[in-house]
Structures are given as structure tokens and as C-alpha cells.
């Protein structure tokens, strides 16, 4: 499943008061680091020079940008702000195929600015696995060629190379201890990627949005659990850990997936997370108060120290999304309302970004802690490992699986599986678009729904995966816009 969600149990409520004691002494703790994503899909933003001044005035000393715009990189020069730059997905092919192109790109976009502009990481692509242009095959060669270019310019010891993944890269994410990567990506992408990260001392980059999980499963996910507020917690039946926030549960699912491949030693950076302050009527949970609570409590959670329940000593670096509301973004209303600031440089809501600022900050409700170990799981006998995938979910075909797997899965679903495939027959309502992927998606979803969305019924030999957003929307799990109306999963139903 793509979005990690957890059912709340009201049984065996722990005594929570002690969990919050440490919040009163946060000034003594060494914590993680907060950064911010500086997106610029807007026509009303302040100049890059003013943006740098804004960052510094609020104590933000890490920023991630989605390109290598010269005006931005020059403005960041001598600012003391550490920078993550992005190599766009559309350049992956050229960088992967030609080492000389990688040399030129690094020289032109990195070497000429560093160290005056403190570039610390290059994000090679962004959420490549959900890119409709299918650039996955070029990711690992591109990462290696960029690293080789850093070596050429003697920058490899100070600048790391990674690539942000969305949670859609996970095949399983509930419970967290059962986290695993999509099987078709393990040998081709994740093993070589994680080995590269290990060899270069680089972190895995992850984009995690509890908002999407809550929006699609608000009937089973507590809002307090999603917003780091006081709640009874959710126990992972696989490892006995109690989780008090959906964010921690999502991150630990990725850690579990890494551990399953024997890469426990690799650190993680959360390159995107956030909550919209405004949304359309059907975007459950998108509000000013919820955005303030999520981001404010997240800042507290990160800066007061401590990792996740499964990795309690691993402090996190987290980049909030995003610096500004961006008025030219496509998609639902929420997409234009993730900003911490208006283009006028006024805060959308008042939250701190530093330990010092936390001293005067209070959420309207008490925030939750990261987690703790309990002796008896709330969910016994394996819990939801063999249960149903809760909430509103759909099963779609993976275009990367290949024609043979898609056809085999389609044949099974429409045959022995008992899926309703009449609407995709010639002349029927869902026959168009007449593509293998579209027909397979329809059949896979029909089978999945008929099986009551039971775990394991959306696999088809690795040819399918679960989405948690309505199939006719623009978003699956990540914030990367993908129009999947062509899947027509609701067609004829």
C-alpha cells in the first residue's frame, strides 16, 4: 500500500503524562534539524535576495531548491545556509548516458558556486518512480555519474548524492515493522541505490505526507495521531512498539524496508513533509489550524531530539514543504496552500523554526511523543498483517512491470480471479483507452475490491500496487502531479 495508515486502538491506554515530561526540558536536548523547501511556481514571490533575508531572520539554516537557478544560488552565497539542489527528472537520461554531460552539469551548477554557496547535497531527480515519463532505469547510472563528477572536482567529501523517493515506493507499510519496497524495484533500483548510499556516506531521501493518509482514511485515523497531538498510541504487532504519530510510523516503515535488505546503517533525510492550510471541500483535514498544528508540532518533535521508535537515537533532518504559497501550481486548492509564508513574507500561521522559538510556542492541544516499547501489543496474533487494508484504497497496474506480467495478471483477474471485466470488452463503457495498462488497472481493482481490499490481493506478481487517492485525481501518494484519469478505475461503476 502506498500511504501508511494505522488503525487506532483504544485498548490498553498507556499513562501518557510521563511521555510529555521531556517537552518541558526541550532546551536541554540535542535534536535534529529543520529545513524548508523553496519552490517557485508562482508569479508573485519576493526576490531571491529577500528570500535569503527571510530565511535568516527566522533562523532557517537549511533550504532545498528544485533546480539550480543562478539568481537563487548567488543570493545564498556567504549566507551560511546549507543548500540541497535538484537535478530535474528530465535530465536523468542525458546524465546517465554521458559522463561528460554530468561533468558539465556539476561544473556549471555546483562547482562554480561552492563553497561560497554551501551546497551539501544533490538530489538526483525527484520521486522518479512515479514520474509518468518512466525515467527509473536511468536513476542509478545518473547518481553514479554525478558522484564521479564530484570526485573530478574534489567535491565528493563535502557534497552528497541521493534521490527523494515517495512512499509509493513501498509495497507494504502497515504495520511499520512489515515495511518493504515494491518487489519490482528491489533488484533493479533499491539494492544498487542503497549500496551506493552506503559507499558514499549519503542518506536516503524520503518524501512523507501524513496528510494524504489522513485525508483518504479519516474514518480510521485519528486527527490527533496525524497532528502529533496527545493520543493513546498505536501498537505495532510485529515489534511491540507504540506509535504516537503517523509521521513516525511512516518513517519507520521505510527503515524496516531498508532493514529487510540489510541496510540498517544508512541514515535518512525527510526531504518533504507538510500540511495544507486550505483545500477543496473534499480535501478532508486541509485547514489553517491543522497545518499550524502539524508543522508546529513537527518542528518541536524534530528539534527536541530523538529518532523514531525503531531508531530512537537517529535524529532526523526534515525539510518542511513549503516556504511560500505558490499561486501557479496545478491541481486541487491544497497544492497552492502548503506555504509557511505568503508572498508578502508574512507568516500564514505562527510557528517557530528554532529551539529558542519553541520556548514560547504552544499548540492548542498537547503534542505527542515519538514512541515507546510496550510489552504486550494491542493487536495480537499478528494484528493487521493478515487483515484488510483500511480506508478508501484502489489497486492499479504498474507500467514498469512489463507486458508479460501485466497480461498474466489481467488473465488471472478476469479468469480464475472472478473480476468483473465486462466493462473493458470491445464496445463497452471502459474499453477506451485500449491499452494493456488501463485494462489491467481496471481488472486488478475489480478483483481487489471484490476481495474486500485484503492485504495480498493487489500484487499480481509485482504488476500492481495500491493507491490511496481517488483514481480520477491528480495525486497518488506524493505531491508529484500525475494525471491518472486514463486509468478509468471508476468507469462503469
UniProtKB/TrEMBL annotation:
Q: What's the EC number here?
A: 3.2.1.39
Gene Ontology CC terms, in alphabetical order: plasma membrane; plasmodesma; side of membrane
> By what name is this protein known?
glucan endo-1,3-beta-D-glucosidase
Location of the region described as Disordered in the Swiss-Prot/TrEMBL record:
362-381
Question: Which Pfam families does the record match to this protein?
Answer: Glyco_hydro_17 (PF00332), X8 (PF07983)
Task: Tell me what topology the record assigns in the membrane.
Answer: Lipid-anchor; GPI-anchor
Keyword Cytoplasm attached: no
Under Gene Ontology molecular function, one entry of this record is: glucan endo-1,3-beta-D-glucosidase activity
Q: Which SMART domains match?
A: X8 (SM00768)
Amino acid at each position: 500500500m502506498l500511504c501508511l495508515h494505522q488503525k487506532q486502538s483504544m485498548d490498553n491506554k498507556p499513562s501518557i503524562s510521563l511521555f510529555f515530561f521531556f517537552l518541558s526540558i526541550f532546551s536541554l536536548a540535542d535534536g535534529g534539524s529543520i529545513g524548508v523547501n523553496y519552490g517557485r511556481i508562482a508569479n508573485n514571490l519576493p526576490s531571491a535576495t529577500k528570500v535569503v533575508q527571510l530565511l535568516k531572520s527566522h533562523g532557517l539554516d537549511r533550504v532545498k531548491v528544485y533546480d539550480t537557478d543562478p539568481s537563487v544560488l548567488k543570493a545564498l552565497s556567504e549566507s551560511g545556509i546549507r543548500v540541497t539542489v535538484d537535478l530535474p527528472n528530465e535530465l536523468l537520461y542525458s546524465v546517465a548516458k554521458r559522463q561528460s554531460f554530468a561533468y558539465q552539469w556539476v561544473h556549471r551548477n555546483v562547482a562554480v558556486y561552492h563553497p561560497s554557496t554551501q551546497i551539501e547535497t544533490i538530489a538526483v531527480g525527484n520521486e522518479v518512480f512515479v514520474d509518468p515519463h518512466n525515467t527509473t532505469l536511468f536513476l542509478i547510472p545518473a547518481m553514479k555519474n554525478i558522484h564521479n563528477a564530484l570526485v573530478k572536482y574534489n567535491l565528493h567529501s563535502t557534497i552528497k548524492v541521493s534521490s527523494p523517493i515517495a512512499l509509493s515506493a513501498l509495497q507494504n507499510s502497515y504495520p511499520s515493522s512489515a515495511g518493504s519496497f515494491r518487489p519490482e524495484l528491489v533488484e533493479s533500483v533499491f539494492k544498487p541505490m542503497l549500496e551506493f548510499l552506503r559507499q558514499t556516506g549519503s542518506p536516503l531521501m524520503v518524501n512523507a505526507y501524513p496528510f494524504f493518509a489522513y485525508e483518504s482514511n479519516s474514518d480510521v485515523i485519528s486527527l490527533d495521531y496525524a497532528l502529533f497531538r496527545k493520543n493513546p498510541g498505536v501498537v505495532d504487532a510485529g515489534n511491540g512498539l507504540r506509535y504516537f504519530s503517523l509521521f513516525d510510523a511512516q518513517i519507520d516503515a521505510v527503515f524496516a524496508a531498508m532493514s529487510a535488505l540489510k541496510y540498517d546503517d544508512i541514515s535518512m533525510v525527510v526531504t518533504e513533509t507538510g500540511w495544507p492550510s486550505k483545500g477543496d471541500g473534499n480535501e478532508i483535514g486541509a485547514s489553517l489550524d491543522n497545518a499550524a498544528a502539524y508543522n508546529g508540532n513537527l518542528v518541536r518533535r524534530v528539534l527536541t531530539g530523538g529518532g523514531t521508535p525503531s531508531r530512537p537515537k537517529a535524529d532526523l533532518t526534515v525539510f518542511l514543504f513549503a516556504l511560500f504559497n505558490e499561486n501557479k501550481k496545478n491541481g486541487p486548492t491544497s497544492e497552492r496552500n502548503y506555504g509557511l509564508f505568503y508572498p508578502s513574507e508574512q507568516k500564514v500561521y505562527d510557528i517557530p523554526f528554532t529551539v529558542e522559538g519553541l520556548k514560547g510556542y504552544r499548540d492548542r492541544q498537547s503534542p505527542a511523543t515519538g514512541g515507546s516499547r510496550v510489552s504486550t501489543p494491542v493487536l495480537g496474533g499478528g494484528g493487521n498483517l493478515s487483515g484488510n487494508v483500511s480506508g478508501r484504497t484502489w489497486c492499479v497496474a504498474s507500467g514498469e512491470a512489463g507486458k508479460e506480467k501485466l497480461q498474466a495478471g489481467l488473465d488471472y483477474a478476469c479468469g480464475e480471479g472472478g473480476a468483473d471485466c465486462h466493462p473493458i470488452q470491445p464496445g463497452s463503457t471502459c474499453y477506451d483507452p485500449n491499452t494493456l495498462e488501463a485494462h489491467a488497472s481496471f481488472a486488478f481493482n475489480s478483483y481487489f475490491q471484490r476481495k474486500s481490499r485484503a492485504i495480498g490481493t493487489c500484487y499480481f506478481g509485482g504488476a500492481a500496487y495500491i493507491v490511496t487517492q481517488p483514481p480520477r485525481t491528480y495525486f497518488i501518494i506524493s505531491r508529484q502531479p500525475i494525471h491518472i484519469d486514463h486509468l478509468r478505475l471508476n468507469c462503469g461503476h
